[in-house]
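We modelled the chain as a single entity of 240 amino acids. Its sequence is:
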Amino acid sequence: MPPLLMYLFRQYSKQVTKGANLVFFLLFVVGVGSAYFHSTLSLMGQLIDEIAILWVIMAAIAVWFPLRHMPKVFNGNRQMFQRVVIPISIISTALCCVIPEINAFVLMMFGAPVVCLLIAEYRRSRVWRVRSLAIRCALIWLCAIVFWTNDKFLCKAVWYNFPYLHSGWHIMIFVSSYTACVLFAYFQVTHERPELGAKLRYWPREGGCWEFWGIPYVALDCIEPEMMACKEKGLGEKTV
């Protein structure tokens, strides 16, 4: 899956930031770490899985955190912000090894600020395709949380003999995480590089049921050599 995502985001990674490829690669590492953990149920496997998730979150924050919500001390300088995120990630990685039992709960807490940022950006957008994808992302994330909570606290209950929610959790959290990446990548281009004419599209095709079952990605309609023509025509989806 990550190689396909890198392919779909090839315009974005070339024109905006190659950090997207890093996030997608780390998603692959999460998948490998999760498979290793669930096949061995070892402490090492748990740490590999959870540390990989931590680095996906920190990498996504470094790449896509909205400039308008960035603390004023950074003065809108993303590179300075990223230089601060790196040592925080290293320290957090070390802390993961101190009390592994609480890692899952701490990682889950990252979802709250992400949802808050998503709501703030959702309110600014006037593009229905973007707003509907944001709603779907939030609903899938909520379902994933419900599945994880039930699996965590009710899986061993005698009256609740349904051990397959955990697999559903993995599927839904991946879908919601990738969808959030797409949305924040779109918001980044429309707010920071509006001249690129960002469009939300679906693979393998547009329209119909593919807007539900397809894979969303960010396309750029106004890249060279069409840049000047797009500026003159005013292409690109506008946000308020």
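As a brief sanity check on the tokenised model: The mean pLDDT is 85. The radius of gyration is 19 Å.
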